[in-house]
Write a structure and sequence with these properties.
Layout lengths: L1 H32 L2 H17 L6 H10 L2 H4 L1 H30 L2 H5 L4 H23 L3 H7 L3 H24 L4 H26 L6
Helix pairs in contact: 1-9, 2-7, 3-5, 3-8, 5-7, 7-10, 8-10, 9-10
Length: 212
């Protein structure tokens, strides 16, 4: 137990140590290679994703709670029903995110005040890709909470740390090679989804009775 607590604590500091320079350097790179306007739109996209997390409605905490009390061992069938129900809700909320994204795209011109038709179309494409990508990430958002429930926070932190480093290096390559927001969005969303899928594989190994 002491070993797990120590690893959880140290890896928490590790993720913070990675995220701080990641945020600072990403901001500098995007301002340098894309300019203030595109960086501002990137920040707008991330704020959209943060607000979409409110659709969780506490289900992630529920997954953490039922996992922590060992329900997957005491009553695997009931636990699987809970997991399946939460996943179904996440799928429904992901559909809402996609629908809201498409609806909001029609008002994007009014929000960002861009007059150039070509640039506006580019921003709309970025917005739609990011919104649909955010929906994909949202579907798997409960996996890290299950890891917390089985007291494997350090596994979540290790995976997140590797993914942040991969995102960091990949973003630098994209920006230096002249890639734009669309390429950056596709790469970032792919890394986030893969990050959660890796955690999901580990969860399945730790809870062999888990069925969806």
């Amino acid at each position: 137990m002491k070993s797990a607590i120590l690893k959880n604590t140290l890896t928490n500091y590790l993720t913070v140590a990675i995220r701080l320079p990641h945020a600072i350097l990403m901001t500098r790179w995007m301002l340098a290679y894309l300019g203030r306007e595109y960086y501002g739109f990137w920040a707008l996209l991330w704020s959209f994703f943060v607000y979409s997390l409110l659709l969780d409605f506490g289900f992630g905490v529920s997954l953490q709670k039922y996992t922590a009390v060992g329900l997957f061992e005491k009553d695997p069938e009931h636990y699987n029903k809970i997991i399946s129900t939460v996943l179904a809700i996440y799928l429904a909320m992901a559909a809402v995110i996609v629908a809201v994204t498409f609806a909001a795209s029609f008002f994007l011109e009014w929000v960002i005040r861009v007059n150039d038709p070509e640039q506006l179309q580019y921003f709309k494409t970025c917005f739609l890709l990011f919104g649909c990508g955010a929906a994909l990430v949202f579907i798997t958002a409960g996996v890290p909470e299950i890891l917390v429930g089985i007291q494997k926070i350090y596994i979540r932190n290790y995976v997140n740390a590797v993914c942040r480093l991969l995102e960091f290096v990949g973003a630098w390559v994209i920006l230096v090679s002249g890639g734009g927001l669309i390429t950056l969005i596709l790469f970032t969303i792919t890394v986030l989804v893969l990050c959660n899928l890796v955690m999901w594989v580990y969860v399945w190994k730790q809870i062999p009775t888990l069925r969806i």
